[in-house]
Amino acid sequence: MLDKGxxxxxxxxxEPGTVVTDHEVMESYRYDRALTIRPGRPVAVVRARSTADxxxxxxxxxxxxxxxVTRGAGTGLSGGSSAIDGCITLxxxxxxSISVDAAAMVATVQPGLLNVEVKAExxxxxLWYPPDPSSYEICSIGxxxxxxxxxxxxxxxxxxxxxxxxxxxxxxDGRLVRLGGRTVKDVAGYDLKRLxxxxxGTLGVITEATLRLRPPPATSSTVVASFGQVVDSGRAVVxxxxxxxxxxxxxxxxxxxxAVERVRPMGLGPDxxxxxxxxxxxxxxxxxxxxxxxxxxxxxxxxxxxxxxxGEMLMGARRMAIPCxxxxxxxxxxxxxxxxxxxxxxxxxxxxxxxRRSTPIPIVGHxxxxxxxxxxxxxxxxxxxxxxxELAFDDIMKVALxxxxxxxxxxxxxxxxxxxxxxxxxxxxAELTRTIKSALxxxxxxxxxxxx
Length: 452
Hints:
Oligomer: single chain
CATH class of the largest domain: Alpha Beta
CATH topology of the largest domain: Vanillyl-alcohol Oxidase, Chain A, domain 3
CATH architecture of the largest domain: 3-Layer(aba) Sandwich
Helix content: 25-40%
Number of domains: 3
Structural class: alpha+beta
Distance between the termini: 30 Å
CATH superfamily of the largest domain: FAD-linked oxidases, C-terminal domain
Radius of gyration: 22 Å
């Protein structure tokens, strides 16, 4: 009766077609890309067209005590937008407006736009939106905000939160609040907008963001270096980042390279232990220093290209790595980060975990900021393999924490890592997190059971 009550109330207040209850249609809204998660079944999907629709949804959900899981493009990798039984799935895919103020170098956007669409609109005004997750062509700005997404160029240019000047947020009870504004500098009061960026829909629903834009960077040169041993590539990263800030610094180990070669052959031999891809927009001196660091760290081959198409081809291969590895089986996608000096140890420890758990774990990552994606592969039809994969997944998170790192650099906690968050935060910070959650969402309706 309760579920029918909230669905009926939603249908009464929202425009026809906004509330979806057809089970076949709702099926596609249950999952994100964390396919190892078994999602629940929503009682309805609300495809909001406006902030007002979101307000109505949260006000009624709060009144009826029904959980709400907010969803963007469904490209998340941690189960953060996966449905739970009896929830309302709130889809923001139809909220797609954008306006650019070129003089102020800001864009005001709704969450349903894709990252690539924001980049394209900024480019029409000769400007640039830097955050660039590997899935930038298919992931939404709302999802980027929810997870504080990073990307390939964040080593130099920062992550999503570094470009958020202001937010419009709907709170759990349906109230609307505006945080921040349009100024570059603003230190009046608590910086509440940063509280919501990265909160994965647990504190409120972001319905609009004012994003900072930049002039486009200078043309980049690309450095590519191959290594016989993957740990040597980690040593090269430490040496490079100790004195330089390249625009991009990415790593793929041999297993990831092989997976990409099967889909997009580039002539990379099976004897390569790792590939390091760096880009610099700071001129030839930085490029030379990057190449030198690779050579000093044991690179077997180093090349530099000023051809932007060739550079983009190499970066495209890196962006393809996760989808290509996913062709090999079910994948638990890690997202750990460690301090830069700990990178070689992390890489070595991941190899030890793979051997100990008899589980293949290719590695790719945003090496320049210590954020790596170990890809734990297993056969879902083999219960023993699935169990080993889960143990390996947990082992890697423990390794990252033991090195002073984090269980998530950009993908979010979601469902996959919820049990490990308290270990990273510690007792006091976990209690503080619960206090903030309770203050903003006293009925615990916003994406419940996914954090501490």
